[in-house]
Write a structure and sequence with these properties.
alpha/beta, Spore Coat Polysaccharide Biosynthesis Protein SpsA, Chain A, eight-stranded mixed β-sheet, two-stranded antiparallel ribbon, 14 helices, 10 strands, Glyco_trans_2-like, Glycosyltransferase 2-like domain-containing protein, Nucleotide-diphossugar_trans
Length: 361
């Protein structure tokens, strides 16, 4: 079941709905209408969005599009609340028909999904994954923001590749990307509920939900075959989102600045130690005593040994443990000894590192 929160999207809504309606399989054959439904909720719009949606519904009666409109109080009139209402509705619909394995898929009203979007989401979930994050590709990125956006993508792509080598994940093998956000996010009903559901907050609700998914060790697949094309507009509808990021990058260009990120040397060390800690975690209830191994990891991460040991045995999930570790690293000696560096320089070191790896990597 696909959910689409919409507010004042009359200019691009038809493109969004066309993309959702004209879904095909790997052979280019249109998907059967019974495979998926679309729930679209129009909130607090002042344009023709609702009219266009209902008109579209009448024009294509075979397309399982459900349209609703709601006027929320000002404090609740934001995408986090609307996405929560929609995902909860999808969850309750699946629950009412006894389908805990049902899949809830989120996109946005300013985005157009790839023609194979549904097909590859279903394929990835069928392989045992709980979550599928799609690659989000902006359209017509503003010129002033472009270089910083490309650097950000390059850095995150290289980091994802590094993690796949040093701390591999069976659910998310290489090739993969680095995104798992609202414009293209699929979750099973079971994992949606287990993660505490998407929080109804004014912005970055998808980022907080992503963290919650990793916190409970959900099997997250960031599939390069699942793609969505989204707006790169500068005038957004939330206090912080992609539009604000584009504005900030544009200002950085004007001020001849660039983003600073964690250096490769620190990333290699941290990711390697994360992998070691994960292996210990998997056998933490066995007879093996991990005291010396934990001491070694805590020293290399510049963490208090007693603190790490306590969290290691207290946390229910590895993702929960690692989130706590990363918070400590950012606030403690680790960050002081591994100062951030200009992103362009770090990307160069990444490229050199990968060029020197065996071809199989």
């Amino acid at each position: 079941m696909v959910i689409v929160p919409v507010k004042n999207e009359e200019d691009g809504l038809i493109l969004t709905l066309n993309a959702l309606r004209l879904q095909v399989d790997a052979n280019g054959e249109q998907l059967d209408e019974s495979v998926y439904e679309v729930l679209l909720l129009v909130n607090n719009s002042t344009d023709q969005t609702h009219h266009l949606a209902t008109q579209y519904q009448r024009s294509f009666p075979e397309f399982k599009l459900h349209v609703a409109v709601i006027e929320l109080q000002k404090t609740d009139a934001h995408v986090g609340m609307v996405r929560r209402l929609l995902m909860d509705e999808a969850y309750e619909r699946f629950k009412s028909i006894g389908k805990p394995e049902g899949i809830i898929v989120s996109t946005d009203g300013d985005s157009q999904v790839d023609q194979h979007w549904v097909h590859y989401i279903l394929k990835e979930i069928s392989q045992g994954n709980d979550v599928v994050g799609g690659r989000i590709l902006p359209k017509n990125t503003p010129q002033l923001s472009k270089i910083h956006h490309l650097r950000d993508v390059s850095y995150r792509y290289h980091l994802s590749r590094l993690e796949s080598i040093l701390d591999p994940c069976m659910a998310d093998p290489w090739p993969r990307h680095f995104q798992c956000y609202g414009p293209s996010l699929a979750v099973t009903c079971a994992i949606y509920d287990k993660a505490g559901r998407i929080p109804p907050i004014p912005y970055l609700e998808d980022e907080e939900f992503r963290k919650a998914l990793y916190r409970i060790d959900a099997k997250v697949r960031k599939s390069p075959k699942v793609k969505v094309y989204t707006s790169a507009r500068l005038a957004g509808k939330v206090e912080f989102g992609f539009s604000v990021q584009l504005q900030q990058w544009g200002n950085m260009t004007l001020e001849n600045q660039q983003q600073h990120v964690e250096p490769l040397s620190a990333l290699i060390k941290k990711t390697t130690l994360k992998g070691e800690l994960r292996k210990m975690w998997r056998s933490r209830h066995d007879a093996a005593d991990h005291r010396l191994q934990l001491l070694n990891v805590s020293k290399k991460l510049l963490l208090d040994d007693a603190w790490l040991k306590g969290k290691f045995y207290a946390c229910q999930y590895f993702g929960e443990l690692w989130e706590l570790v990363e918070t400590e690293l950012e606030q403690g000696k680790w960050r002081k000894q591994n100062a951030l560096q200009p992103i362009s320089e770090v990307i160069k070191t990444f490229r050199k590192y990968f060029s020197e790896l065996p071809i199989a990597s």
